Amino acid sequence: MNPENSKGSYFSISLKNHIENFFKEDDLDRNIFYNQGLPCDLVECTLKFKTDRTLISGLPFFMESFIFLGAEKSYFGDLLSHEGCRVKFEKGKETHSLKFNLPFSIALSGERIALNLLQRSSNIATYTSKFVELAEIKGISILDTRKTMPGLRFLDKYSVRIGGGKNHRFGQTDNWMVKDNHKSYFGGIEEAVNFFKKIGSFYNPLVVEVHTLEEFEKANSLGVKHFMLDNFTPVDIIEAVKSKKEGTTIEVSGGIQLGTLEDYLIEGVDAISVGALTHSPETVDISLKMKRL
Predict the structure, then answer these.
(1) Candidate list 16, 24, 73, 112, residue with the active-site label
(2) Residue 90 annotated among the catalytic residues of the structure
């Protein structure tokens, strides 16, 4: 995903609205004398990536934070071209860094929000890429979930894609998913499936979450095409894929971590969804330093 080829879509009204809300939270208007008093001289900004193999993600959000405060896009040069690049260290060399210039007042006022967004995005993208590198060997896709930070789903989903993963649902109605509470309320898989079928959305796909081989076989008999095997053991997954019909997909989910991923890379599995990609990714270290010109 290259933001430079997006014809400005990553700097769309949607992104600007998100950034505006982030700055409202920071409450810069509380003391206008401070803001007006900050010098506007240009400073050299050095963005430092201090964790080996960081996958840089979130530069559109980082830049837009400063642009919202009045920075010109020209200040950033080719910064955006580094989106999706992998940080590499060589022994004895300086920390990987990117440089650009900004007015000091803008750089200082936008620093924390810009870094927060870049940090979170790079955390998610870097962590996602580790899962993808293992799973793609078997032709299995890595998916995110809706376990995103409220208000940051746009960023979180974007970051997963930079990391090579794929997005599951953005919202509850992207597709119908029969989950535990549906089955409990309606009285079983068949009743829950029928409820969604009666909604009458011709093109909306139906995914059924199952927890046992018996539930899987029941859903299979109902003509369901998309299955989520939740908290299945690798042994039970192997058994389930034996009954997989042509044209159906099997997604595996439920507490799968990087250290256990290889146990679930089973032939016949199409995708593995991992909530940890967005709710608890490993962290990378990024800082922004400024020097007067």
Answers:
(1) 112
(2) no
What is the Rg, in whole angstroms, of the alpha carbon atoms belonging to the chain?
Answer: 23
Q: Annotated catalytic, 147?
A: yes
Structure tokens of 239? 């058994």
pLDDT over 80 at 231, yes or no: yes
* pTM across the whole model: 0.91
Is 179 one of the annotated active-site residues of the chain? yes
| Residue 27: predicted pLDDT | 80
CATH code of 117's domain? 3.90.1170.20
CATH number at residue 179: 3.20.20.70
95 and 178 in a single domain? The answer is no
The active-site residue, picked from 48, 50, 146, 147, is: 147
Same domain, 173 and 252: yes
Question: What DSSP character marks residue 233?
Answer: -
Active site includes 230? yes
- How many domains does one find in the chain? 2
38-69 pLDDT tens trace: 899 999 999 999 999 999 999 999 999 999 99
144 shares a domain with 255: yes
Structure confidence by residue, pLDDT tens digits, 255-270: 999 999 999 999 999 9
Could you tell me if 24 and 100 lie in one domain? Answer: yes
Q: How far apart are CA 48 and CA 233, in angstroms?
A: 42
Q: Of the candidates 49, 50, 45, 51, which has an alpha carbon nearest to the alpha carbon of residue 63?
A: 45
CA dihedral 230, 234, 235, 236 (to 10 degrees): 10
Q: 64 lies in which domain range?
A: 3-127+282-292
Is the pLDDT at 89 greater than 80? The verdict is: no
